[in-house]
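re: that complex we talked abt at group meeting.

here r the seqs, copy pasted straight from the sheet so there may be weird spacing, ignore it
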Amino acid sequence: DTEVTQTPKHLVMGMTNKKSLKCEQHMGHRAMYWYKQKAKKPPELMFVYSYEKLSINESVPSRFSPECPNSSLLNLHLHALQPEDSALYLCASSQALGAGSEAFFGQGTRLTVV
Amino acid sequence: EDQVTQSPEALRLQEGESSSLNCSYTVSGLRGLFWYRQDPGKGPEFLFTLYSAGEEKEKERLKATLTKKESFLHITAPKPEDSATYLCAVQARMDSSYKLIFGSGTRLLVRP
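got the structure back, here u go
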């Protein structure tokens, strides 16, 4: 089983709203990731968690706030987003944050900011 | 600077017409090269990991190879269901951590 589950699949939110994206995996992976993908572009790394601790923050604006409550769950809290933040948000996990550890992706949350 | 370049940007094939996609990379100390397939509006689907020059991996009509500077994804006798964007990524060291660096992808269209 290489399943990473993301909810919701689609989300429309206003610029003053607060919402959260959720990601769950039960593969025992200890590294989890958030990526942002715009149309016809490759995924761009946002955050990396390793053993529930933030390992990489790619200078993401503070209106995006990640949280890793336990080794199976990863959240992305959204507040005061801009229309240009509309994108496909992808969660991924890998066995560890180490060399050669392949990442498995969820199906993504399509976010539209109006 | 670590970099991944994929070519061609787009490729149109007739069903059964074999071809290859290219991924060239510059990274200080390759720790893994990954191939993914992505359908529109979906997350990338893992295909292969390659670690060292000379390594090859196969899955159905796909075969991935690796040299010291590039990787190829060979598609033999493709079918319309192989139409997708194929992404190449390398794992690079970042401070005390690791990150995946993606290429821009090759959009493959296989016509019946």
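couple things i noticed - The interface with chain B takes residues 2, 4, 6, 40-43, 45, 48, 50, 55-56, 88, 90, 92, 97-108, 110 of chain A (CB under 8 Å). The two ends of chain A are 36 Å apart (CA to CA).
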